[in-house]
Design a protein that fits this description.
The complex is a heterodimer of chains A (360) and B (701). Chain A is α/β, with parallel strands linked by helices and 360 residues long. Chain A has 13 helices and 13 strands. Chain A folds into two domains: 199 residues, 3-Layer(aba) Sandwich (Rossmann fold); 76 residues, CBS domain Like, CATH 3.90.1280. Chain B is 83% helix and 0% strand. The longest helix of chain B is centred in the N-terminal third of the chain and has 40 residues. Chain B is globular and about 85 Å long. Classes of the chains: A alpha/beta (360), B mainly alpha (701).
């Protein structure tokens, strides 16, 4: 839930997923032999289920913009893993298009696909997927080795990403000697070594302890701030999605229920299913620091100065120590008003009144 | 006998209490056929008229194959004799010091200084006792057969990994190849390829490749799907995906296959030497044993045992250290290492003309271990003869004979000190009945039925049971445990034994295996229970078990034959010794795996140590114990074949006779018979495991 750019949707589309279906069963192709006919989504899915087919992804569509973190959130069995596997073509979709820079991945011949995977895509897996017989360095350099890159270049590039994920000094270790968090750092480094444009992360932190998970999320955001990849991030953890997403989609039973920024989802849940997730989120998490500010009435230079780009949540501690108020300044240093305990509470109350769930 | 049966008869109505109709019918049928046996001769002996001359057919077929394809096989023989000659000459010509250096260096790479030292000492022992040339001849065969078997196994493994259909076809072939006794291979190979060391080579490849196939498939299949996906996402081509991702990720398991293949190859090379003409270490053991020179055969047997341990530790070490040695930085170091070894070897080689002792081990450095050993053995046997005889007779009279020919014949004034009176039989039947009744009162119908059947079998003897009764009981068991497929399979297996005329010998095999396996299982499991509780004991047992398990089976025979001469008891001891290892291992492993939480829960409920063992630990370890039993049976049967060398008179002996008399059909049928027994036993164990797992999943019936 970070707002580096006011409107990520304004940027160019990098990856576009259009009307994607994945159906398991004896003859899924049968359902899409409808050239010229419009597909009626819900009746078709219902018919598949009646006829012993399993539609794991149903008419999934979304766009990922350049430099955007797009999170797909859903509980297990909702089809999110199927979708990301279709995007990377680890699983062949039954119907639809996946456009990467306007090129349809699903129609791509195997050789071209290998080239795309070698240079444009990186993927991080829930269970790390490290080769137990290779060292950290060799694991990270593995994609380069497949491309036939020379040893010196392999080491140099791998060394750079290993440094990026903070594993410098552990290059010679084997995966078995690392903790879960460290192993996933290796997985992240490996996915970045080919400098991909599109970065897929399939529940990358779900196998980690809660504390480590939090730390890895911060690390991930730090890396993204430097690299500006276009990201599809899968998670079953709603709070993780909120922390990370520029925009997110919620999936249920193979379908996307709602797409939007975290704030949009929380303020206007599309149905009860989404509302059930959002109702548990403390409102203060959504409030931006700038939204709690009131115009300064006196001299502000004596007050502690804080950034106006942060979240209101982060102001509580300083406010407790300085009940007289905090002065906000934006990135350029220009004053953006003052936050006092009273103005914070007023802003929270205003947020609650927009949304019936908080009062109840 | 019929006299005694009258006393047994009245129990029927009483025993039916907790039993199903099926059990009752089977028991009644068995009892009826036992009663009718004296009057109906074909119940005792399957009529010869109904046997088929399968052996003759096989011989005819073999003659035809030999007549028509001999040139093909001859060509293979000629082709493979040449490289075999090379390897053999190379090893004989190589100075011992160079060979030792290379082996020790490999051992060092595989596991470290300890193993390198052990390897060097083992080879020095070989030099000291003057068996170097023989050992080199065996090594030559192994060095040729292992790579060929590994290659064959690997290719077949990759093939069946990529095609489920191939795997389905290959699996039964592997089952049979692994269970048909080694002797049975030798004859057809001998007939096809002609006399010579090629027989050993071909036999050892055939015998050694199945574990490689299985481990290759297992290794390739076990690779986690995420790792494969990583390969795909990194843009691997099909070839890269296999060679750079799947193969290295499964390599450890595949190397375990190499280890097993090496051990199988070694044991086959040793066995194949009985054909003669190889002048290798196996021949040394066999010929000295035939001449009753036990000291010499112990000395040579020790060489085999050492070779086995060295090869086992090296190949196993390579599999274990697989992760270490492939590391990139170590990669360079490894090349440096081998360069240094090569340089040292060359240096040693060049030194040989200067220091001749480095080339050929001087004669006066040899020591004669055989003579003092013979003296010691002679003294020991003379001193303890009464004790040894007593042990042997007690075991024969009270255990071996009763189960074989039944209490009704085994109890005599000569054996038990009294003749069997009708009232003895009456007391016996009352005891059996009481046991069955008690069991059925507790609602354990199957146990009651088993007690009744076992009582009957023990009275009549496995070998003397009327065949229809045996067939009915076993098929019924099969039906109970595995439904139609197992019942049908058991029926077919028994039918094969009947119509080929192998029934009597097969029953003797079953008798010996049953006794051996029961004893081995009890002893092994008991020791395993102790080892699971006592780390100290476990540490002592580990090397002993390793040694027993890696040693080619027939080396075990030497000391036993020495003490107890030839015969059933010696065979039995050998089986027990060889087969108790898996029972021990699985018991210890199973008990150690029981979750501490469960044990703590039981302890907190106030369980006594005995209750903990029998009501918590053992039941939880049961699946592992059953795996152990399965392995115990397999080990027992494979040892049974070897014991033909010490004069049993079962199927194993038939195989051996077939081999030595050049009767392919006879030997092969007996071999298939043993394989059938082994496979059927295996299927019974698996059915039990399946039922147990199913029960835990779906709830008890």
């Amino acid at each position: 839930m970070k707002d580096q750019t006011p409107d990520p949707a304004a940027r160019a589309v990098k990856l576009s997923c259009r009307n994607l279906w994945k159906v398991y069963g004896t003859r899924p192709e049968y359902y899409f032999d409808t050239a010229g006919y419009a597909i009626e989504v819900d009746p078709l899915a219902a018919r598949m289920r009646r006829e012993a087919h399993v539609p794991a992804a149903i008419d999934v569509s979304f766009d990922v913009h350049v430099g955007e973190i797009f999170v797909i959130m859903g509980l297990s069995g909702s089809g999110k893993s199927t979708v990301i596997r279709c995007l990377s073509r680890l699983v062949d979709a039954s119907h639809g298009q996946v456009l990467l820079d306007g090129q349809d991945l699903l129609a791509m011949p195997p050789k071209a696909l290998i080239e795309v995977r070698r240079h444009k895509m990186g993927m991080v897996f829930q269970n790390f997927g490290l080769m137990p017989h290779l060292t950290v360095l060799e694991n990270v350099a593995f994609p380069l080795r497949l491309q036939g890159v020379g040893l010196v270049e392999q080491r140099e590039k791998a060394g750079r990403v290993i440094e990026l994920v903070g594993l410098r000094g552990r290059e010679g270790a084997f995966p078995g000697q690392l903790s879960g968090g460290q192993q996933q750092r290796v997985g992240i480094a490996r996915s970045l070594v080919v400098e991909p444009d599109v970065w897929f992360l399939d529940e990358p932190f779900s196998a980690l302890d809660p504390l480590i998970r939090r730390q890895m999320q911060d690390e991930f955001l730090r890396i993204q701030k430097m690299l500006h990849k276009s990201i599809v991030f899968i998670t079953h953890d709603f709070l993780e999605a909120l922390r990370i997403a520029d925009r997110m989609a919620i999936m249920r039973d193979g379908k996307i229920v709602q797409t939007g920024t975290p704030t949009e989802l929380i303020l206007n849940p599309a149905d009860d299913y989404v509302a059930r997730f959002t109702s548990e989120v403390p409102r203060i998490r959504l409030l931006q620091a700038a939204a709690c500010a009131v115009p300064a009435t006196g001299e502000t230079s004596a007050l502690p100065q804080v950034s106006a780009d942060g979240m209101a949540e982060d102001l509580i501690d300083p406010l407790a120590r300085h009940p007289e108020g905090l002065a906000l300044r934006d990135a350029s240093g220009a004053p953006r008003g003052v936050v006092t305990p009273a103005s914070l509470i007023a802003a929270l109350a205003a947020l609650g009144s927009e949304d019936g769930h908080v009062a109840g | 006998m019929s006299q005694a049966e009258i006393h047994l008869a009245p129990r029927r109505p009483a025993s039916l209490g907790g039993l199903g109709m099926g059990w009752a019918a089977v028991i009644l049928f068995a009892l009826a056929s036992v009663l009718a046996m004296p009057r109906v001769p074909w119940l005792a002996d399957y009529p010869a008229a109904a046997e088929l001359p399968v052996a003759d057919w096989l011989n005819t077929a073999m003659t035809w194959v030999v007549a028509n394809f001999r040139p093909v096989f001859q060509a293979i023989t000629t082709l493979s004799t040449v490289p075999m000659g090379w390897v053999r000459d190379l090893l004989q010509w190589l100075p011992w010091s160079v060979f030792m250096l290379i082996m020790a260096a490999t051992a060092f790479r595989a596991q470290g200084v300890g193993l390198a030292l052990f390897t060097a000492l083992g080879l020095i022992y070989t030099l000291l006792v003057g068996l170097w040339p023989q050992a080199m001849n065996s090594f030559a065969l192994i060095f040729l057969s292992v790579p060929l078997a590994v290659l064959t196994g690997f290719l077949l493994g990759v093939w069946s990994f990529s095609s489920p259909r191939v795997e389905r076809m290959l699996n039964p072939v592997l089952d049979v190849a692994q269970t048909v006794p080694a002797f049975a291979y030798l004859l057809p190979i001998l007939l096809l390829f002609g006399f010579g060391p090629v027989v050993g080579l071909v036999a050892s490849i055939l015998f050694a490749f199945p574990p490689m196939v299985r481990n290759t498939v297992l290794g390739l299949r076990e690779v986690p799907s995420t790792i494969i996906e990583v390969g795909q996402m990194s843009g691997a081509t099909r070839g890269q995906l296999f060679w750079l991702v799947r193969f290295p990720a499964g390599l450890r398991q595949i190397l375990i296959g190499v280890n097993q293949t090496t051990m199988a190859s070694l044991s086959m090379v040793i066995i194949a030497s009985m054909i003669g003409g190889t002048a290798d270490i196996g021949w040394e053991v066999l010929s000295t044993m035939r001449k009753a020179e036990f000291g010499a055969s112990l000395v040579a047997g020790a060489v085999i045992a050492l070779m086995a341990m060295i090869l086992d530790r090296i190949t196993f070490g390579l599999a274990q250290s697989e992760g270490r040695t492939l590391g990139q930085r170590r990669f360079l170091r490894r090349h440096g290492f081998w360069a240094a070894v090569a340089a040292a070897a060359l240096l040693l080689f060049l030194l040989c003309p200067v220091v001749p002792a480095l080339g050929a081990w001087p004669h006066n450095w040899r020591i004669d271990l055989a003579t003092p050993l013979d003296t010691a053995i002679g003294w020991f046997i003379l001193t303890f003869k009464p004790l040894l005889e007593a042990i042997k007779n007690a075991a024969l009279f009270f255990f071996v004979l009763p189960l074989k020919i039944g209490l009704d014949k085994a109890v005599s004034p000569f054996t038990w000190g009294f003749a069997l009176q009708p009232w003895h039989a009456a007391v016996y039947s009352v005891l059996v009945l009481a046991g069955a009744f008690a069991a059925s009162r507790r609602g354990q119908g199957a146990l009651a039925a088993t007690i009744l059947l076992f009582g009957l079998v023990l009275y009549v003897g496995i070998a003397d049971m009327p065949w229809p009764a045996t067939v009915a009981v076993l098929v019924w068991f099969g039906w109970q445990m595995g439904g139609m497929p197992l019942a049908a399979g058991t029926g077919l297996a028994l039918a094969f034994l009947l119509i080929t005329g192998s029934w009597d010998k097969a029953m003797l095999s079953i008798h010996l295996t049953t006794l051996g396996v029961l004893a081995a299982f009890l002893i092994g499991t008991t020791l395993g229970i102790v080892a699971a509780r006592n780390d100290w004991f476990s540490r002592i047992m580990r090397p002993i078990n390793d040694t027993l398990q890696t040693m080619p089976a027939f080396v075990l025979l030497i000391p036993i034959v020495m003490l107890f001469k030839i015969g059933d008891f010696t065979a039995l001891l050998a089986i027990v010794l060889y087969a108790c290892v898996p029972a021990f291992r699985y018991a210890e492993h199973g008990l150690r795996q029981v979750s501490t939480e469960t044990v703590e829960a039981a302890t907190s409920l106030g369980a006594t140590p005995m209750q903990l063992l029998f009501q918590v630990r053992l039941p939880l370890a049961l699946p592992n114990l059953m795996l152990g039993l399965n392995q115990t049976i397999m080990y027992g049967i494979s040892m049974l074949v070897i014991t033909a060398l010490v004069g049993t008179n079962d199927l194993g002996q038939e195989v051996y006779i077939g081999l030595s008399a050049g009767n392919f059909g006879q030997g092969f049928i007996a071999g298939i018979g043993m394989a059938i027994i082994a496979i059927t036993a295996d299927r019974f164990c698996r059915a039990w495991q399946y039922n147990h797992a199913a029960k835990l999943q779906k709830g008890a019936v």
